[in-house]
User: Which sequence fits this backbone?
């Protein structure tokens, strides 16, 4: 104990004062999430967009039909959000004028779907709902218990995205599914374009989904009409997808079998599952694809934890990791974690391709 005590370095006065400020910031940073939620619920990003891309506080009060007395309070909210990069201040005179940033652009409702834009409000409103916040509030209690179920299941007695949650809270279930689709499908067309080299020489693809809507499969079929595309998802999801003559929809279970193809895609799927489950899924993928000589491969699109991406992006990845721990009992993985899963599933080799935002892409070979 004495050796441990002697290794403690007492902070300087200046370090303690800075530490207090850091403690305040870390303790209160949830208010940024709540302020962003408030902005989305009020429709502030959409109002600025419809006002031509810039708006004063008075403009917003009028456009949103808010009480005039709330103007100074709205100013304080917008000041916080602007400091976080949600909005930009285009004039710093007596009357500030706010414009959209790429972040708040993602929260605009009503932009044409063919512009690569998706309204991210369902994702934001899901992860800032009381269903999620309650998990974080009770996290210390969860750690003290022997419960093996994810915190979400332990707290709510139902599983996120599953029928049990639909029966318990239909409105939240609908919102969470919309949030999942935004999370998984955003920038799909950009991804297909930027990674078109992956599809060179490929004749057939199976896209393994988890509560998806076939967006990736349809994007591949549109970009590469010579490729036969199959979408595998849960039977209850496939029943919602009318036959379109473009994609072959198959209801099934990736833990049991996967429709054979030259290439299998797992985009934003494996982070939902434990390591043991991921090995099972990957082993089934290996069974489904052609030999390496025939061009067989599995493509994974998911987060690869990496501090080299910079502090902001890495913190985002770590937040997503804890989010998965709370929601589904899954996790985000670094390259060593991915390597272990790949080798345990029986693949002979893999390659890391370029990053795609906060995510990475891996190509696996049998």
Assistant:
């Amino acid at each position: 104990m004495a050796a441990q005590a002697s290794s403690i370095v007492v902070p300087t006065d200046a370090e303690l004062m800075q530490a207090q400020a850091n403690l305040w910031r870390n303790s209160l940073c949830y208010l940024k999430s709540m302020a962003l939620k408030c902005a989305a619920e009020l429709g502030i990003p959409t109002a600025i967009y419809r006002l031509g891309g810039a708006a004063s506080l008075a403009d917003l009060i009028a456009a949103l039909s808010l009480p005039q007395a709330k103007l100074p309070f709205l100013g304080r909210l917008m000041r916080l959000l602007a400091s976080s990069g949600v909005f930009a201040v285009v004039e710093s005179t007596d009357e500030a004028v706010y414009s959209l940033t790429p972040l708040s652009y993602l929260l605009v409702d009503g932009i044409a779907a063919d512009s690569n834009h998706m309204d991210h409000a369902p994702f934001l409103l899901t992860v800032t709902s009381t269903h999620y916040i309650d998990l974080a509030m009770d996290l210390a209690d969860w750690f003290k218990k022997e419960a093996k179920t994810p915190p979400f299941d332990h707290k709510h007695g139902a599983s996120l995205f599953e029928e049990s949650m639909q029966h318990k809270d239909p409105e939240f279930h609908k919102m969470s599914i919309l949030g999942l689709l935004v999370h998984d499908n955003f920038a799909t067309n950009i991804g297909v374009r930027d990674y078109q080299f992956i599809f060179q020489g490929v004749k057939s693809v199976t896209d393994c989904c988890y509560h998806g809507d076939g967006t990736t499969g349809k994007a591949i079929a549109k970009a590469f009409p010579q490729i036969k595309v199959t979408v595998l998802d849960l039977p209850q999801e496939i029943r919602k997808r009318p036959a379109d003559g473009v994609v072959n929809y198959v209801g099934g279970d990736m833990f049991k079998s996967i429709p054979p193809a030259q290439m299998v895609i797992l985009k934003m799927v494996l982070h939902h599952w434990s390591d043991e489950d991921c090995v099972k899924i990957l082993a089934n993928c290996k069974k489904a694809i052609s030999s390496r000589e025939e061009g067989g491969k599995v493509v994974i699109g998911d987060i690869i934890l990496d501090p080299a991406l910079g502090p902001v992006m890495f913190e985002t990845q770590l937040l997503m990791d804890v989010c998965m721990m709370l929601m589904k009992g899954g996790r985000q993985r670094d390259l060593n974690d991915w390597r272990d899963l790949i080798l345990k599933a029986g693949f002979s080799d893999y390659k890391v391709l370029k990053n795609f935002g906060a995510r990475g892409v891996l190509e696996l070979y049998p």
Observations:
- Residues 311-327 form the longest helix (17 residues).
